[in-house]
Every structure is written in C-alpha cells, then in structure tokens.
Amino acid sequence: xxxxxxxxxxxxxxxxxxxxxxxxxxxxxxxxxxxxxxxxxxxxxxxxxxxxxxxxxxxxxxxxxxxxxxxxxxxxxxxxxxxxxxxxxxxxxxxxxxxxxxxxxxxxxxxxxxxxxxxxxxxxxxxxxxxxxxxxxxxxxxxxxxxxxxxxxxxxxxxxxxxxxxxxxxxxxxxxxxxxxxxxxxxxxxxxxxxxxxxxxxxxxxxxxxxxxxxxxxxxxxxxxxxxxxxxxxxxxxxxxxxxxxxxxxxxxxxxxxxxxxxxxxxxxxxxxxxxxxxxxxxxxxxxxxxxxxxxxxxxxxxxxxxxxxxxxxxxxxxxxxxxxxxxxxxxxxxxxxxxxxxxxxxxxxxxxxxxxxxxxxxxxxxxxxxxxxxxxxxxxxxxxxxxxxxxxxxxxxxxxxxxxxxxxxxxxxxxxxxxxxxxxxx
Length: 427
Known about the structure:
By secondary structure, this protein is mainly α. It has helices at 3-6, 11-23, 35-49, 54-66, 76-79, 87-94, 96-104, 111-118, 140-154, 166-175, 183-195, 205-215, 223-229, 236-248, 256-270, 275-287, 297-300, 308-315, 317-325, 332-339, 361-376, 387-396, 404-411, 415-424.
C-alpha cells in the first residue's frame, strides 16, 4: 500500500509527539523523559484534575510538548552559555515565546495553541512577557502551562545550574504563588506533588490512562475527514518545522535538511521514481539528520577533526534519526531510508547493515544530495567549495561511496537549476 493511501487519522498526533522529542533530544537527557514531554504530561494531568474537556486536554498536552519551539530562534552561544545570562541576552531569550507562536500558528489545526505558546511566560501579577497580561486576562489553559513549565524547569538541569529536587522545586514555586502564578493552580500542583501524580522520570499510571482515553484520538476528526481534507501534504508544515529545529542547533547546518529534501526529490523525479517514492524521499530528506540533535554543539561545530570518541558520537546520528522517525507509525520505510543514508555502496560508511536488510536506492539518492550540500556549504571543519568541485568529488566516488545512477543524475543537473531550485523554496 502506498504511503499516500495509508495515511491514517493519528499521523499528525504522532508527528507532533516525535517533534516534542526532537526539540530536546540530547545526550544528557535522551532516552529519559525530557522537559517538553514532562510539561505535556503535567499539563494533561492538571487539566484533568481541573475538569477540562477532552479536546482542551489534548491541546494542552501538545502545547506542553511544543511550548519552547521558539527557542530555535535563539543564538546557540546564548542557549549553551554556562554562566548566568546578561540583561541583553535575557531580552533575546524572552523573544522565544513570540517566535514560537509565529511558528505554531502556521500549523494545521493548531492556531489556538499559538496564543498559549505566546503567553506561557505571562505572570499572574502582570510582570510577565511579552504582553503584560494580568490575572484573568491570562486564559486558564495558559496559567496551567506556565505553572507546570516552571515546576518542571526547576527540576531540569541547565548549563548554569544543577537540577532541583521535586521538593525544592515545589517550595520555590509556592514562593511565587499570587505573584507569578494563580494561587489556586499552585495549590493543585502541591496536591499532585503530594499524591505523587507528577512522577519525575516516567509517565504516571494516571497519565497513561488519560492518554489512552482522551489524548490518543485524532486531532483532525475521523479517518475519512483526514484523508479528504488533510492528507500527506498537510504534514509538510510540521515536517519542515522538524527540519528547521534540526538545523537550528548547529550554525553551519542552517537550511541543510530542506536543501537535501528538495534536491533528493528532484533527483528521484529525474530518475523516474513514482509519486509515492517521491513523497518518501522528500520526507526522509527533511528528517535524515534528526539524530544530530543528540550531538553536542561543541562536537559538530568543532573546527578541527573529531576525536575517536567524538566520531563515535557523530556516527550514531543515523540510528537516532531512525529511532525518532519510528515514533510515527506510517514512516517505517522512511525510517529505513534514513538509517542507511551514510552507508556506502561498497558497504563501508556507517552504521553497519542489519542482517537481512539492504540499502535502498532512495537512501543512496539522499547520500548523494547530502554530500553535495555538505561540500558546497561552509562547515566548521571545511570551507564551501563550488558546484564543479562537488561534482568532481562525487564523480570520483561513483561505484564505491556513491550509487552510480544517483551520482550521474546529480552531475547532469545544471548548477543554475540547483540554485533556482533552492531559491524557489526560499532555502
């Protein structure tokens, strides 16, 4: 069955949950529960305790997962600073809620969440940002998100401090009851903390029951409605957001995933692949480097060659990419394509080929497009080369590193066509 025909009503939910993992996927936290996941679960638990209806619970859950998406706009040197931020740096950080709302408002069915994400740092006494809302001007859902976000942030290790214990975090947010937070909500969080409903490091039994009953339902209605009104093209804003988040962590990879996706699809089209494969390779191109979120900035942006230990970390990123994509049930084939995009035609490269599996041509097309973009863009460890040099390097690797037909297809594309292709997609 083709990917287009196999679309089901839960795929948007699965994409957003996987994106929630990507947003905070790093070596220290993954595969443990992460801040975004914990905030989503905490919001659903608190919303259930407050009697919110199932659609609000579902939206709160996804708002928790995506509340910090705007942090992709913050320069990496600020996000990864090990000391306290200066006043000027904090002003830059404060803009993440506005940037997040602008990203989310473009996603199908989630425009309501844009307000929640914009205002998740508003304070009960009007001292928050960006709009200085006061008390009941702040929708109740946002009051929930704000308090849960703070409670969990205090328990999450940061570059400039260690994590607080749950008891310490509870004591801190209670000090801000009536100023930063609605006192009634803080009292409810205290009850949940005392009852151990919010369990650090794992999903509580109550959350799993809530998720099964209220959250694991389609965001966009039934399957028939989904196929008729939404379809695979409706996922592209979400998948492009994946690519932006992936590339934003590292200064030198800005726009890389989108360029690889566009070029891979164009090459596959020139090679005569059917529409279903074009869809697969476009999605795989967008998500092929998702696992690079697991690599520390100081490793990928290192100016010299990596150490043996750092190289081991880098070589794991296709595995991590594949693991993240597997969270989306319909993307099994795409997960397979991504897993092998650094394996050479002659079997070298990484990771090792699994017993009984083979490398698809789609993986090999992405390998060529990926190499082309890496060669022609500046990286920490290499300067950008011109298109002719990239063509020469790829030609020299035909039959060993690169698939012969895929490499020849790229080499036969005019550089002006590639430039126009990227320009039309605003890469």
